[in-house]
Amino acid sequence: MWCSRAAVRQVALGLRGTQCAMATLPRVYVSRKVPPQGLDILRKSGQVQIELWDSDDPVPRQELLKKVKGCDGLLCVLTEKIDAELLDAAGPNLKVVSTMSVGFDHLSLDELKKRGIHVGYTPEVLTDAVAELTVALLLATSRRLIEATHEAKTGGWGTWRTLWLCGYELANSTVGILGLGRIGVAIAERLKPFKVKKFIYTDVAPRPELAEAIQAEYVSMDELARQSDFLAVCCALTPNTQGICNKNLFAKMKNTSIFINTSRGGVVNQEDLYAALSSGQIAGAGLDVTTPEPLPTNHPLFTLKNCVILPHIASASYTTRNAMSALAANNLLAGLRGDPMPKELQL
Ligand SMILES: O=C(O)C(=O)CO
């Protein structure tokens, strides 16, 4: 039964002629058309039978639940919820889940741990791309670039005016990082040449080994809010960070401050953010992530000139997305062989 269905997929994957030899290999479901490097690694390994959801759009949940049944491995992206329902549908063969993301809030870690399933993820390879985009978003927001191009295109550009489209500059500023990890450090390294005066950060505990590289001072959450001219959110979304950027935080920020989020939308209470932006409590916000994604086009945040919203593109460079797919593929293959994964999440 599998052989005949697989033959169709294998022809599509360029594996003609090897169908039946592969019937005993571990079965892997790839839940999205991943960039070519990762797919090539899987194809050329000769180690797995691959079934691919060959689309840029997410696999419908019911289809995913059907397709994972009996699989040994699953390569997924951040839009797939890997929870008890899915793991039950997959059944006891499932040994490895490899996500093509550094974030893992879409994975039920307790359920994975309970079942002894190994989990691979993709840290480090996306650090540069995310840091670069964060700087771009910060500048676009603080120097009002989106508003400015709109004005130029639509006739709002009259004469040169002294305070028209003025924003806030990085020189002599204090930049605060909420959640200091590799990405926070990479952002600070990129911002330093803009003559930032001081970097501060907060986290569950001081991280001197990381902070030293950027000479960042550890402060409380309240101090972070009070002192930051630019506040960049870089923490993972966990039950502890859910909604921590809320009215309490925004109320302590300066009315000249810029809030930037390239981590996960869930760390922000969007109603509170809307209130802070529309009342002038803070000066602006740049968001690469929202709740939900996509954010409906009629969402109130889209009505605000001082809110720049991007469609979750922080890691979207060709180099990085290929590297993420390659790492996800290598994690999957190593896990299925019983070898240490290049990047395994410790559950
Ligand atoms: O990897 C992630 O977690 C992302 O958000 C996309 O790069």
Describe the protein in words.
There is one protein chain. The chain is α/β, with parallel strands linked by helices and 347 residues long. 36% of the residues lie in helices and 14% in strands. The chain is built from 13 helices and twelve strands. Strand 7, helix 9 (208-214) and strand 8 form a beta-alpha-beta unit. The longest helix has 20 residues, at 318-337. It is elongated and about 70 Å long. It starts with a helix and ends in a 10-residue tail after the last helix. Mean pLDDT is 94; it is low at 1-18.
Quick description:
The protein is built from 13 helices and twelve strands.
Could you tell me how far the N terminus lies from the C terminus, measured between alpha carbons in angstroms? Answer: 36 Å
Strands of the largest sheet, in order across it? 8-7-6-9-10-11-12
Q: How many β-strand runs? A: 12
Give me the secondary-structure category.
alpha/beta
Secondary-structure element pattern, one letter each: HEHEHEHEHEHHEHEHEHEHEHEEH
The low-confidence parts are 1-18
Overall pLDDT level: 94
Shape: elongated
Return Rg in Å.
23 Å
Number of helices: 13
Helix content: 25-40%
Q: Strand fraction band? A: 5-15%
Bound molecules: 3-hydroxypyruvic acid
Largest sheet: 7 strands, parallel
SSE arrangement:
Blueprint (H helix, E strand, L loop, with lengths): L1 H11 L14 E4 L5 H10 L3 E4 L8 H7 L5 E4 L7 H7 L5 E4 L9 H6 L3 E3 L6 H16 L2 H10 L19 E5 L3 H10 L6 E5 L5 H7 L1 E3 L2 H7 L2 E4 L13 H6 L5 E4 L8 H9 L5 E4 L19 E3 L8 H20 L10
Parallel strand pairs: 1-2, 1-3, 3-4, 4-5, 6-7, 6-9, 7-8, 9-10, 10-11, 11-12
Helix pairs in contact: 2-13, 3-4, 6-8, 8-9
The protein binds 3-hydroxypyruvic acid (3PY).
